Structures are given as structure tokens and as C-alpha cells.
Amino acid sequence: MWAAFYLANRRALGTYALALTGNAADAQDLVQDALVRMVRQKHQAREARAYVMRCMRNLAIDRYRRSCSRPTETPLEGDCVAFIDEEAAMDGDTLEQVRAALRSLPARRREVIVLKVYAELSFREIADILKIPTGTAASHYARALDELRELLTTEKRYVSR
Amino acid sequence: MSRDEFEHKLKAVPVRSLSARADAEIVAAVRAATGQACPWYVRSVPLWHAAAACILLCAATWLLGSIGRTPTTLRGDRSTGLEAGSVVVHFDEPLFRETSSLDRMDVSRWRVCMSPVTE
After folding, report:
1. A15, B26: Cβ pair inside 8 Å?
2. pTM above 0.80, yes or no
3. Which residues partner with B82 through β-bridges?
4. Residue B9 has pLDDT above 90, yes or no
5. Less CB within 10 Å around the terminal CB: N or C of chain B?
6. What 3-state DSSP class applies to B74?
7. Residue B69 CB: number of other CB atoms within 10 A?
8. Would you say B82 and B88 are in contact if contact means Cβ atoms under 8 Å apart?
9. DSSP category for residue B71
10. pLDDT (tens digit per residue) in A34-47
11. A114, A19 in Cβ contact below 8 A?
């Protein structure tokens, strides 16, 4: 059941894991550990995607705290845009602008953008993962989009001059 | 640029995912963990399936056994062509199979008749 679940949600889980850890090896470990934990807990597959991703987030926070030996609110501190494919066919300047804009966002808003835009989750699922109300998740998303739009538009104007 | 247009543009940014090898390793680890979490008798046959199969097997055995042991009885009338009032019993199994040499049986009042069922 969980193997089929992973294959059906590999994109969302992989993208979020890459955003949490910043590299592919740690992302693989994170997804694997979260799924094995689900199996051992005999968790039922109801709303499983949000549950697994919340488990991934908690594991990533634990690891980050252990590695830094200092507390942090959110694990999105390393290469938080590692999920963006640098080798894909896209204008290099545009890609770098998007990466820079995403890096400049506050961690929580960046996390909401990753979950909504790239992992394609609903606001309800995002709220479950981040343990915040659904309305708060939606407002974080709206503000993050506005900030990104402003950042990218300003940068484009600056570049075009 | 509207918010929807910008959102669409943001979605167009190419995203990396885990490699095929990583996928295979994750699936293998999950399957291994599933195997450890569930013993073979739970994993391959659910308990209620096994119970239902046992009940069906017992019922089938009992039914077949009772059919084999039930004698066919014919009463004499016009449809059977036998003498009126006579009763003909046909046993699928030998009548004396379970008797021993010590058992006594009075056959003096038995009467030979033709059975319509012939082997």
C-alpha cells in the first residue's frame, strides 16, 4: 500500500523533501524514513499525503536541530531552492531570478509556495502540515505571491535598464 | 501581470524530483518494512477469509458425507412398478461393512426382491 502511495505521490514528496533538506541524498533518506515510520505505526491511508509530509517536516526539523545543536523554527534554512531543476531548458537569468526571489522570502511563506505551487497541495493539506489554520495558509500564500511578483518585476526592470 | 498569470509563470519553473534509483530504493525499503510489520499469514490471507474457507470446507465435507450415507428409499406403487406396500432400500455402501463376526443378525424374515437400482 505504502509503496503504491509513494509512486502515486513521488513528485510532491520528492519536491518537498528536496526543499526541506537541500540535497538529493538527504531528501531520499527523509522520504524513506517517513514512509517506514508510517508502515511501522500501521497508519491508515486516510489523508495520508499531508500526514506523511508533516512527518517528513518533523524529521527534518529534528535532524536540523541535531546537526546545528541549536533550536530553529523551520528547517528551510539550507539550499531551500534545491528542488528547482538548474539543468532544465529555461532562460538562465529568469531561473536565477526566481531562485533569488524564493530565497529572499520568509521561511514560512517560502514553504507555503513550495507546497502549493510545486507540490500541488490544497490549502487544507498545507494547513495540516504546518499546523496552522487553512485561512492562514491561504493568506501566507497570497502575500508570498505578491512579494515574489514585486521582487521579480523590480528585478526585471532593473535588468532591462 | 495578474496574480493568476504570475502563478502560472511560477508553476512553469522546472522542478527536480528524486532519481529512478532513489525511487526504487525507497519502494524496496517500504516493502521490506511492510513485510516485517505484517506476518505472512496476515499479509497473504486475511483472518476472516481463512475462517470462511474453513467453514465452507467443513460444510462441504459434511454434506458430501451425508449424501453418501443417505439410503435411497423407494416405496411400491404404480410409478415405481414395485409391489404395493413393499419398501426397497438401496445403500451406496456395503450394508455389512461395519459389522464384525461377533455381531448377530437375524435374516430369517428378510425377503429377496428385485431392486430397480442395479449396479
Report:
1. no
2. no
3. none
4. no
5. C
6. strand
7. 10
8. yes
9. P
10. 999 888 887 666 67
11. yes
pLDDT at B10: 83
- B22-34 per-position pLDDT tens digit: 999 999 998 888 8
Nearest to A58 by CA among A73, A79, A39: A73
> Over the stretch A85-111, which tens digit does the pLDDT of each residue have?
777 656 666 778 888 888 888 889 999
d(CA B113, CA B115): 6
E strand or H helix that includes residue B90? strand B87-90
CB A50 within 8 A of CB A125: yes
Alpha carbons A43 and A65: distance in angstroms, whole number: 26
The ipTM (two decimal places) reads 0.78
The residue with greater pLDDT, B97 or B83, is B83
On whether the CB atoms of residues A137 and A127 are closer than 8 A, the answer is: yes
User: For A13-22, what is the mean pLDDT?
Assistant: 90
Instruction: Output phi, psi for A14, to 5 deg.
Output: -65, -45
Which residue has cell 517517513?
Answer: A34
End-to-end Cα, chain B, rounded Å = 96
Query: Please, what is the end-to-end C-alpha distance for chain A in angstroms?
Result: 55
Chain B residues near any Cβ of chain A (below 8 Å): 1, 3, 6-7, 10-19, 22-23, 25-27, 29-31, 33-34, 37
Nearest to B13 among A10, A35, A95 (CB): A95
Cα-flanking dihedrals φ and ψ of residue B74, to 5°? -120, 135
Determine the Cα–Cα distance for residues A146 and A95; give it in Å rounded to an integer: 18
Using a CB-CB distance cutoff of 8 angstroms, which residues of chain A are in contact with residue B10?
98, 113, 117, 145, 148
